[in-house]
Amino acid sequence: MRRTFAALVSLSLFVSSVAAADPPHIVLKNEDLKFTLYEADATRGFYRGTRFDHAGVFGHVEFAGHKIFGPWKGSHDPTNHDDIVGPCDEFGIEKALGYDDAKVGGTFLKIGVGVLEKPIEAQYSFANKYKIVKPLEWKRSEPVVDGLLMHKWVGEQKANGYGYRFTKTLFVSDKKGTVITLEYALENTGEKRITTDFYNHNFFNVDGDAVGPYYSFAFPWEPKAKELKGKFADLVELKNKEFHFRAKIPNSDFVMAGLTGFDPQAKADRQFDMRHEPSGVSVAVGHSYPFAKFNVWGIVTTICPEPYMAIDLKPGEDTKWSITYTFTQEKK
Length: 332
Hints:
Number of domains: 1
Distance between the termini: 8 Å
Structural class: mainly beta
Radius of gyration: 20 Å
CATH class: Mainly Beta
Shape: globular
Number of strands: 25
């Protein structure tokens, strides 16, 4: 039977005492759940790349004696585009705001990161290291809400007619069990229309276990794969609303595909479950937004389901959405 761990009680928050060289972070802890949040710091932050937003960057999550979302790369360079772990957000994977209009040496805007300089290159790439001309300045607060432990980040920036106000709130509740909730709000404060997308990369792994048959995903819809890349066709099986591996991903290979089969208008379709058989750990991930597309990418050290949301905001318009992570363990 599946058992949801006890509600979050006796919550405590403490700022870790770290050496000067360590990235600044905080640790959230209760009886059953413990996880790290790295500060958005332009000079000392754990993640300072130009792809993912810098607020509320996770370290691993400890639950039921297991570690979820652990490191997946052998070394760490905080300025690399993907030297990050856990749930992390990106806006505009294919193109940042104002990139096409910017001349070489000019600037464009990456939501959640800052004002970036356009180099000599054929096209925008999320994997490139762009010069940050002006990092986004974040204001973090800890709103006092009865029954909740909450952290809130707000960042505002304008450049070349584009402007936005981005708010990201993380909280855990003592009333809903082992649930981490992320709430988002994006307002267009500029003169130009914002047309982009958003997704969470979800760098899943459990206890450093290699990605293979021990991992699976369950959906409320029947997934079908398109645009298969790497070893996806050889290693992945989709049936009975589940995603399974036939074998471990080889060290030098990867899997990638788009998944279809969901109904964007059906609220029940906006979720998936990650399951790890040896630990019995499951993470149910729920979304308030309709999926525009759904990609999966993985290597031997991490498997990443990526549900996308389309964003189209005229000046003055805003939008809000949320993602929840519910941790459970099957009793053996």
